[in-house]
Structure formats: structure tokens, C-alpha cells
């Protein structure tokens, strides 16, 4: 197994590992450490079925089953289908692009550790891949914050709300999303998360506060909270923290939700087909391993 860093703020390729085969414990540990160090890792030239994708992903924690999403691999509800392809008038999967910058499940008490995506069909135009996935480095963003702001926010939490993201998506041009019902909002209540937290693999502080879901700094008046959040969101999206993954067919892409925020780029048309299968790894295992090592 060879780890090839991108040379950028985030990213590395791992070569020589066949994800269709069970991981040894040594390889699992090496992948986990690489993910903590590089934030985003890709495994090129993989050939996986849904069961193999699920087995690889589950080596790092419990897999989410999204009961509200019907776009799942038959027989494998942990494997979500992301696609803009329509067959006989029915969408093949959930269209995932254009969601703006966020961290998956920061709105939930049960935090997400990693996403694992397998690219099957990638749209291209003039030979160039479309639908890239962008990331920003939250360890670097934390390190560069003014010291007085780090001290001010050291013990602070922020409220994260799924409805903030939902309403943002409803305002998008052409969106037909209805508002969340009272029942849906009851099932996804706002939660408080630390603005800074220690990464469970590296032990480094990261900025855990994203534009998609964070809406208020707890215990702070709204005007001051809005001012600080605006600064944090602009700060973390600086170009120097960014990394863009250009997809190729048969890529497996894995990223760390503690140390990064991400954005799916919607630069392709309905006629330019995209098909990706996805597993979301919850943080139960990585947090337990961190606690055991402490």
C-alpha cells in the first residue's frame, strides 16, 4: 500500500489496496491514520459491488441507514444511490450536487465520522470531469484564527439546525421542496456542538462550525453571534484551505467529517449522467478508539 499526498491543503491517493477484499487490521489502521492526516483520501481503479463497499466502510464504524431516503441499494439499505439518471420517469437516485458547504450530520447528536463514495458513472464535457467534490481544511482554518477569538470561543458551542440547510435549499432556483413539517422538525431538533473540538485521530483542534447548519453561538446575543459566524464562514472558505477532487470512474473517495467541510459542485446537466454509491460511517467507533487510547 502506497500513500501519495496531493501536495495541497488536503488530499492523498492510496495505491495498491484492493477494497473488494477484506481489510487487514494493519491496513485498516493505516487508512484511518491517513484519513486523519490528509482529510480526504482516494482509492483509484476499484471494482466493487454494494456488499464490498459496505464491508469496507463498516470497518471504520457503524453505517447510517437513512430511513427517510428511499434511494438505497436493494438488499443493502446502508448503501445510498446518488444520481441524476431517470429511468422510465423515475429517478435512479438522490441528486446530491449543489448543497453548499457543510459537514454531514453536524445537526445530529450522533455525529458522522466519514463518507465513502464509489464513482461508477462520471459526467464529462470536452474530456474534463464534472461534478467535482470540494473540501476545506478545518485544522488549518482553526490554526489561522486570531488568538483572541480562539480564547473567546474556546468553551463555546453553536446551535446546528437541519432546517437552516433545508430552507437554504428551498430558496434555490427551481426548487420544489416543501417546508419541513412539524413532525419532520420534531425528528431533527436543533443540537449544540462545540465550535472547536479535538480531532479523534490526530488530537489537533479543528473548527467544527459550518455554513450549512450552524446558525447561532449559544449564550451570545444575536448581533454578536451573527458577526462572528459571518467571519468564521468567510475565513474557513479561503482558497488556501481548499482541495478539489476531480472524479474518475471507479474512484473510491473517503473523507473525514471532523477535519473538513465539503461542497458538491453542480456544474452538469440532467443529460450528463452521474452515478455514485455512498456509505456514511458514524463516529461511534473512532470516538471509542480515541477514548480508549487517551
Automatic annotation (TrEMBL):
- Report the family membership: Belongs to the TfdA dioxygenase family.
Q: Which GO terms describe its molecular function?
A: metal ion binding; taurine dioxygenase activity
Keyword Oxidoreductase assigned: yes
Q: Write down what this protein is called.
A: TauD/TfdA family dioxygenase
**Which GO cellular component terms, listed alphabetically, does the Swiss-Prot or TrEMBL entry include?**
cytoplasm
Question: What top-level branch of life does the organism fall under?
Answer: Bacteria
User: Is Metal-binding tagged as a keyword?
Assistant: yes
InterPro entries xref list? AtsK-like, TauD-like_sf, TauD/TfdA-like
Q: Which GO terms describe its biological process?
A: sulfur compound metabolic process
